[in-house]
Amino acid sequence: MKFGSLPLSEAEGAIAAHSVRLDGGAIKKGTRLGPLEIARLEAAGFREVVAARMEPGDMAEDAAARLLAEAVAGPHVRADAAFTGRANLFAAAAGVLRVSEAALDAFNDVDEAITLATLRDFAPVAAGDMVGTVKIIPYAVPASLVDAARRTSNGLLAVAPFRLKRVAVISTLLPGFADKVVAKTLAVTRARLAPTGAEMVSADTVAHDTAALAQALGRAAQEGVELVIVFGASAIADRNDVIPAAVVAAGGEVVRLGMPVDPGNLLMLGRLGAIPVLGAPGCARSPKENGFDFVLMRLLAGLEVTARDIARLGAGGLLSDIAVRPHPRAEGDAGQGFAAVILAAGRSARMGQGINKLMEEVGGVPVIRRVVEAALASRARPVIVVTGHERGRIAAALDGLDVSFAHNPDHASGMASSLRAGISAVPETAAGALVVLGDMPLLGADVIDRLISAHAPDEGRLICVPVEDGQRGHPVLWSRRYFADLGALEGDVGARHILAANQDAVAEVAITGAGAFLDVDTPQLLAQARAALRDEQVVRTEPV
Question: Which of 98, 255, 313, 389 holds its CA 20 to 30 A away from the CA of 120?
């Protein structure tokens, strides 16, 4: 192909290289110049035009693109019609894209005029998704180059359709592990499976115990499932830990523990006969893409996944900045401190008609005032009170205290809206916030300060929770990086599933006493708080 300025007298049959604006409409780039176009150019005063002229043996861009796209398209991939030297390729079925990377490199090495771009190998795709595009750079290329590219490209792109349809999910439980976390995990898993056509045919819960889990795995295999996903109440730390040990106890094998993908490091791949068993990392409780998806989608397409396959995922395996990786700018300077967000918007539905638990007195002081005074006695600043139901009474009970208010007009929709209101009111300079329940009258400033002291981004301690005898309490300290997740919550739910999805970042702080564990949701619990305070006062006034 010749390219350059041509006298108009020699331009007939050439291809316009650039658009030319003329009265009555432009001659567009790529137009084959005929007598009419040349006459219009002459009338406008042009004597020459930049154009491309095909030579013997050349193939026009659209013909070359279409021919190569058809050669590239393997099983379950279709080539679209070519236009302006481009032919797009689309998935003809939902599944996992397979790209022969060696063939792709060979194709693109033929000549700079011929290019093919694709999605990554093993990318999950839906029917109709664009998976690649052939682009011819000039207006024509030698047919010999097209033939050379064709020889490299047979079956270069293919889709392995999703095949596995019956999936069992098993969740292991420890004391205090919330039902809401399991429910949220199942909902996320159903949504993850939906595009593949797979169905969650069973959802079992068992104790976080090797024998109990081994029995559950055996039951799932007997029910004819094709894949088992296990969500552990705690992360897998070793091949002798509960989940891998249970796979072996059930007669299976552990193929790989750990993967070079963040998030997703703590994945386990095992097999129970022909049935793959996935020990899910904590991040799999989140709908965000993570290393779990890489392995799950391959398995659902019926593709073999070996330990070597997982080991090779390191290049491109850094999906996002993970919680336990130090990131001082994201966390803010520790000297900037932590806000206290006190939730005081609820209707006290479990207390009985007309009773606002936050206005009930413990030790002669309204519950909400006791909580706020504890926060003000701590290092947390500012102290933000989220109001909703009876906002005027709450504000009056806190008269004279150095607090700010964030009103939640949508408080009737549940706790999530109050979390959003509170978190959005935290100053940008704060390193994070403690979410404090407004109905915990025995909470002390020391608990808040100990949680603040436990926060250590460089050591991966980004979420701090009080714990006694395996039971988690409140408040919870959240680093700023989790504010987006907290703000995305909906309905009458707290943040338990965010904790579950980020277990590696959670620091458990040992706390004794009822202060971090007793909230006065009911008249009975309110009576317990009053009694506990009286007992404490009696002890303190006894002579030494």
Answer: 255
